[in-house]
Amino acid sequence: MENLGVHNCTPKFIERKVTSMSEYMLEMRGISKSFPGVKALDDVTIKVRPGTVHALMGENGAGKSTLMKCLFGIYKMDAGEVIFQGEKVEIVNADDALHKGIAMVHQELQPIPERSIAENIFCGRYPTKSFGPLKVIDHKRMYEEAASLLKEVRMEYDPKAKLGTLSISQMQSVEIAKAVSMDAKVVIMDEPTSSLTDNEVEALFIIIDDLKKKGVSIIYISHKMDEILRISDDVSIMRDGQYVGTWEAKELTTDMIIAKMVGRELTNIYPPRDDIEPGEVLLEVKGLTSILPDSFKDIDLTLRRGEILGLGGLVGAQRTELMEAIFGIRHCSKGEIYYKGEKLQIKRPKDAISHNIGLITEDRRGTGIFGVLSIADNVSISSLDKYVDLGIVLNDKKIEELVRNNVSKLSIKTPSSKTLIQSLSGGNQQKVIISRWLANDPDILIMDEPTRGIDVGAKYEIYQIMIELAKQGKAIVMISSEMAELIGMSDRIVVMCNGRVTGEVSGEEATQEKIMQFATKFN
Amino acid sequence: MKTKSFNGKALITENILIIIVLAMVIVVSILKPNFLTMNNFSNISVNTAIRFIIALGISGCLITRGNDLSAGRTVGLAGCIAGTLLQKPDYGDRFFPNLPELPIILVLLIVIVVCSIFGLINGCVISFWQVPPFIATLGMQTIVYGICLVYTKSLPLGGYRRDYTAIASGKFLGIPYLFFIAFFIGLFMWFLYNKTRHGKYMYAIGGNESAAEVSGINVAKTKIRIYMLASSLFAIAGFLLGAKAGGATTGLGLSYELEAIAECTIGGVSTNGGVGKVSGILIGVLVFELLKSSMQFLRIDTSWQYIVQGAVIIIAVALDLRKYLAKK
Ligand SMILES: Nc1ncnc2c1ncn2[C@@H]1O[C@H](COP(=O)(O)OP(=O)(O)OP(=O)(O)O)[C@@H](O)[C@H]1O
Ligand SMILES: [Mg+2]
């Protein structure tokens, strides 16, 4: 396991700011922004050189997305100015930003699932042709251009297919293709890789290189340290809405970044754990087959008490689909699911939940959060049955206590539990969803990409919670595209490829190569 | 400091309609002193009471991003059924000449049960057949009207029993019974929306239906309950409306759903789902009723009253959407 002990770095070294730039592509000076109850940005300044990747780092809720949304005209800043290509500019909305040459890949996907991939890419700026006096959409050109764009991002999908037929990671790639196609001078990427697989990440890096060569600046937000060190030229760090500093990436190490970001020391990525002897079999899946022809087939799985089972594979391996089927979101044509030896009839999530199964879905925005509801409601919604007096009255006091406990246990950064979840930062939203299932207290917790978009510190907390749950005799299934996480956390890793289980390794024996070998066993 | 003044401004824009209507009330009471009489207020409270019950019914549908366009016609049918069952024994044009004198509460129950069947159908069609609520309840609107025509044979009803009409005209300590009825229904709905699982599930479904399903909420069952409850409230409203009018025709309740939707929206029920409070709905209904009453007092031509009401509906919804589009 990787060790991340913080070295004693001399402040002098750290404080040496990037000075060797003559001209900036973009400067944001003295930006401040408040929301009711939170000062999200406090006098933040960043300067981006042309043709570079400028990484923006900070914990969940540090204000990274907010800063970018101010730049992109989604939020109106309270104070500060933006200097773009040497001129002071006023960006009033996203459309304006695009026209000025700033494009953005958003942290939260904004797909229109019922329209085609091409339409999603060209939404709002369709290629047109003249039809008599009218301008009409040139569908042929739109599809052609979309196809070549998709090729550029190494996703050769049919541009006429509905966006909704793609997986989350594929949608994310479409989103990237869209931003790249804008011909912008500055491309903002807010956690573009949070749901990409390794191959897609590589493709993205090639795209980024191309953009750099064209003199485009990229502002890159990510919680993945190795990525940052690999591709960025400059790194700006934020903490609690304040600007900490900017350094050249080659001067930095992971430890330094973390120390600057968190403001305290962090020694391990994965918490230590004692070996727990797995107990009785909790869940058994036999011959489970999807009703869809090219989804999962003949899946056998067992899950024991006290176990953390990793589920590895590439995109399209149907891991999510399998887990969603066990949870009753999708349907099976054959196969059985047993809970403690009892055969289950799961038709909908409610049935799974009543047999102590929980699922944290992959698509936080689509099937996770209730945006317009408070954090309290979001945490308690799945466990209200436990807090009913006299058969119908909800016990507000107990619910409030439950919520308060969870907010502090996961250190969710929020002004109050009445705050709407949609105003939280992405990582904090994820923590709220995890709290929902902790509150529900299932025996089996399926976590689909549980640490997506979560900062290093919080990841550690989540890993600790997983280990704690396993210790309590619960069983955890974790789907993760992060190989290191899979190897670092699982007792056992089952690898899928193309809808089938292609291999299994124990946590100790697991290596990246072994997992990849199984994950690419297409026949 | 800065944020504070901004909030003050936001507070005004968000509540601009309420402020305008209140200003209007003040102007009218200065111009026409008898606007401020007890009599007029008891009048307004009777109207408000019935509209409030209808708006409460429809609010559940709106909060779950649905709708119930059959509201007005259900009110009408309820009024007609109650009317046929509660006529004076000596009334010449009796609909059921040999009907014995039924207990009022029994008639109310009959009306509620009959109407909630339509709600049940609405809920099932919407949940199981996945028909968009707008269309499902639009169809139901026509069906209910048809049933009303068949049932009453299009005859106007009158000659209601004293004890029935007294529900609307009676007062306790100078306050109309209807006021108390609406008050208790409002209290009940407040309790339902805030203190029960049903309420929490309703807001969750409105907030994100797929997330609700994944969180283990029985979405279909909750929606069916919502539509049945809505129809039951329409039934009660129709029953009371008949008592107030002392008669009923098949035209009773026509397009009440539109007003109810407008009132909910003015009161902050979001057409985007997941948002809406009982107190807000009450304010919405009051604003609308005060507006109507003020216009009557100012002797504004009825045709113009319609134009103003329509404009208010549009502005209300625009303001509601603006809250969501607003740059934060
Ligand atoms: N629309 C909003 N209304 C109220 N508060 C908000 C809003 N948007 C962001 N905030 C608050 O501003 C702070 C910064 O949030 P932001 O989304 O910028 O964090 P972030 O650095 O992008 O975090 P993450 O890594 O989790 O995405 C948070 O405390 C958040 O709760
Ligand atoms: Mg963010």
Characterization of this structure:
The complex is a heterodimer of chains A (523) and B (328). Chain A has 523 residues and is of the alpha/beta class. Chain A has 4 domains: 1-101 and 184-265, P-loop containing nucleotide triphosphate hydrolases (Rossmann fold, 3-Layer(aba) Sandwich), CATH 3.40.50; 113-183, no CATH class; 279-356 and 443-523, Rossmann fold; 369-441, no CATH class. Chain A is built from 18 helices and 24 strands. In chain A, the strands form 6 sheets. In chain A, strands 6-9-10-3-11-12 form a 6-stranded mixed β-sheet, sandwiched between helices. Chain A has a 6-stranded mixed β-sheet with strand order 18-21-22-15-23-24, sandwiched between helices. In chain A, strand 21, helix 16 and strand 22 (475-479) form a beta-alpha-beta unit. Mean pLDDT of chain A is 86; it is low at 1-22. With 328 residues, chain B is an all-alpha fold. Chain B has one domain (2-327). Helices cover 73% and strands 1% of the residues of chain B. In chain B, strands 1-2 form a two-stranded antiparallel sheet. In chain B, strand 1 and strand 2 (175-176) form a beta hairpin. Residues 1-5 of chain B have low confidence and may be disordered. Chain A binds chain B through residues 34-36, 74-76, 78, 93, 327, 329, 348-350, 352-354, 359, 361, 366-373, 377, 380-382, 384-385, 388, 392-394, 396, 436, 440, and chain B through 2-3, 7, 195-197, 200-201, 203-204, 206-208, 210-218, 270, 272-275, 327-328. Bound molecules: adenosine-5'-triphosphate (ATP) and magnesium ion. Adenosine-5'-triphosphate (ATP) is lined by residues 35, 38, 40, 58, 60-66, 107, 413, 423-428, 453, 455 of chain A. Residues 35, 38, 40, 58, 60-66, 107, 413, 423-428, 453, 455 of chain A line the site of adenosine-5'-triphosphate.
